[in-house]
Amino acid sequence: MLKRFTKSELPHTLQRYFPEMEQELLEEMAKVGELIELRENKPVMNAGQQFRYMIFVLDGTIKVFRTNDDGSEFYLYSLTSGSACALSLSCPKRLETSAVRGVTIEDGLALAIPIEYMERWLGRYKSWAPYVIRVLHQRMEDILLSFDQVAFRHLDERLEFYLERIQQHQGTPMLYLSHQQIASDLNTSREVISRLLKKLEQRGRIIMHRNTIELLKTESVHT
After folding, report:
1. Do the Cβ atoms of 30 and 63 come closer than 8 Å?
2. pLDDT per position as a tens digit, 77-121
3. CA pair distance 139, 36, nearest whole angstrom
4. Residues whose CB is less than 8 angstroms from the CB of residue 12 and which lie 6 or more positions away in sequence, other chains included
5. How far is the CA of 207 from the CAs of 116, 176, 183, 188, in angstroms?
6. Using CA atoms, how far apart are residues 146 and 48, in angstroms rounded to an integer?
7. What's the CA gap between 206 and 200, in Å, rounded?
8. Within 13 Å and on the Cβ side, how many CA atoms surround 76?
9. In the chain, where are the structural domains located?
């Protein structure tokens, strides 16, 4: 069920998700921000779109993809409750455009704050700069992990790593993923993914249910 937050309770809600920020900053975020609903399978941002807002996810999940000119996509990372879009935080001016596409995969709610506040808050709130740096560092690590998988891993290892990341983001071993969805995220064919999933099941790494993949507790593929 989609959580609902009113403007009056928003500072308290933000404090739960962003406890490292001082109260004055949280109150200004609530004041200048706009609550937007996230709808499943709807884009939050598109490649080439100009950044106008910083996006803070309060509820729901957004998948972020790198796209190329022929329309192919590669899954980079997910944004879940308490996450912020790092690219929007790194663009203090509206002239910057997005190099990725973000798609909602689970209904939710986000706070959109005009991009000009990114630079304005740097000298006003002592917790803001450390927070921005931490988010950028986390997303850089996500991107490097994705790069390592492509550069140094076979597809079966990439698949298992992908399932582990989805499990970590969603907080449940029951993954509601279609074979076609996984294939699109990993930029391969559904037939190849179906074959590799069957092998993972035979090795005792997963259990395939109807429309659901159960990830079993085993040693991580990327340790």
Report:
1. no
2. 889 899 998 888 876 565 567 778 899 988 899 999 999 999 999
3. 23
4. none
5. 48, 12, 18, 22
6. 22
7. 6
8. 22
9. 10-150, 154-215
The fold adopted by the segment(s) 154-215 is Arc Repressor Mutant, subunit A (1.10.10)
State the Cα–Cα distance between residues 40 and 28, nearest whole angstrom: 29
Q: Strands 53-67 and 212-215, how do they pair?
A: unpaired
CATH fold match for the domains 10-150 and 154-215: no
- Reported CATH class of domain 10-150: mainly beta
| Residue indicated by tokens 């294939």 | 183
Tell me the DSSP string of the chain. Answer: ------TTTHHHHHHHH-TTS-HHHHHHHHHH-EEEEE-TT-EEE-TTPBP-EEEEEEEEEEEEEEE-TTS-EEEEEEE-TT-B-HHHHT--STT-B-SEEEEEEEEEEEEEEETHHHHHTTTT-TTHHHHHHHHHHHHHHHHHHHHHHHHH--HHHHHHHHHHHHHHHHTSSEE---HHHHHHHTTS-HHHHHHHHHHHHHTTSEEEETTEEEEP----TT-
Phi, psi for residue 96 in degrees, rounded to 5? -75, 145
Per-residue pLDDT tens over the stretch 115-157: 999 999 998 999 999 999 999 998 888 888 777 777 667 889 8
